[in-house]
């Protein structure tokens, strides 16, 4: 957990390798003694590995290495969530969306698992934006079907249906098998819609980081 406000939450991250190559790399070099406290065994060796990866591309960092960097930044501004995000952005790491309700995080992850089983494609913690976007379309369809069962109506899914007919069929099948939690459907629809809008034209990688 990189600071108290971020326990059991799900964060979505874009990176800017060119900015990280300069700003984050220089910060790592200037403040070695500070970040070493957040690394595991052989901290100095781990730090050199991280520095080399950042100099190449921040997207080559492992989940554990990225978490260590976030822990470090979080320790500098432990009471200011927005300032942590601002400083990370300045250093090439953009937390552009977050899901904070623990139950919604778990449901989101369950839906992701169902989608992975269908597509036979593992969407790891770092995933191509185009593949991630297809999952978001599936999520939009699933929550839309659930909301229609309750008499609600959404617009975005209607426009996407003709382009993603197979995903809509999958969402229908999954809803028939599993149903949904009516207390979560509206919130999840909002999450999927927001994430879709924020990533539909993005060409890089999306990182999903789950804090515990």
Briefly summarize what is shown:
Helix content is 61%, strand content 10%.
The proportion of residues forming helix, as a percent range, comes to 55-70%
Q: Given the helix and strand composition, which structural class is it?
A: alpha+beta
Rg over C-alpha atoms, rounded to the nearest angstrom: 19 Å
Distance from N terminus to C terminus (CA atoms, Å) equals 6 Å
Please report the total strand number as a whole number.
Answer: 4
Helix/strand order, N-terminal first: EHHHHHEHEHHHHE
Major beta sheet, strand line-up: 2-1-4-3
- How is the main sheet built? 4 strands, antiparallel
Principal-axis shape: elongated
Individual helix count: 10
Residue windows where pLDDT falls under 50 for at least 5 positions? 1-7
Strand content: 5-15%
**What is the averaged pLDDT score?**
88
Overview of this structure, please?
It is a single chain. Mean pLDDT is 88; it is low at 1-7. It is elongated and about 55 Å long. It is of the alpha+beta class. The protein has a four-stranded antiparallel β-sheet with strand order 2-1-4-3. 61% of the residues lie in helices and 10% in strands.
């Amino acid at each position: 957990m990189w600071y108290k406000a971020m326990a059991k939450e799900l964060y979505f991250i874009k990176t800017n390798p060119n900015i990280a190559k300069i700003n984050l790399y220089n910060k790592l070099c200037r403040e070695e003694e500070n970040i070493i406290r957040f690394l595991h065994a052989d901290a100095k060796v781990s730090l050199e590995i991280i520095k080399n990866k950042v100099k190449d591309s921040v997207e080559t960092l492992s989940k554990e290495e990225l978490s260590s960097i976030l822990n470090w930044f979080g320790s500098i501004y432990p009471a200011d969530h927005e300032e942590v995000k601002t400083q990370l952005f300045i250093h090439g790491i953009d937390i552009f969306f977050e899901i904070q309700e623990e139950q919604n995080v778990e449901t989101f992850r369950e839906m992701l698992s169902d989608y992975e089983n269908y597509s036979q494609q593992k969407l790891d913690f770092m995933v191509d934006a185009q593949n991630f976007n297809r999952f978001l379309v599936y999520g939009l369809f699933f929550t839309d079907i659930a909301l229609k069962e309750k008499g609600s109506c959404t617009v975005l899914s209607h426009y996407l249906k003709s382009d993603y007919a197979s995903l809509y069929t999958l969402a229908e099948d999954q809803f028939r098998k599993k149903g949904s939690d009516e207390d979560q459907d509206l919130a999840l629809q909002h999450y999927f819609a927001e994430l879709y809008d924020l990533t539909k034209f993005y060409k890089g990688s999306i990182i999903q980081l789950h804090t515990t």
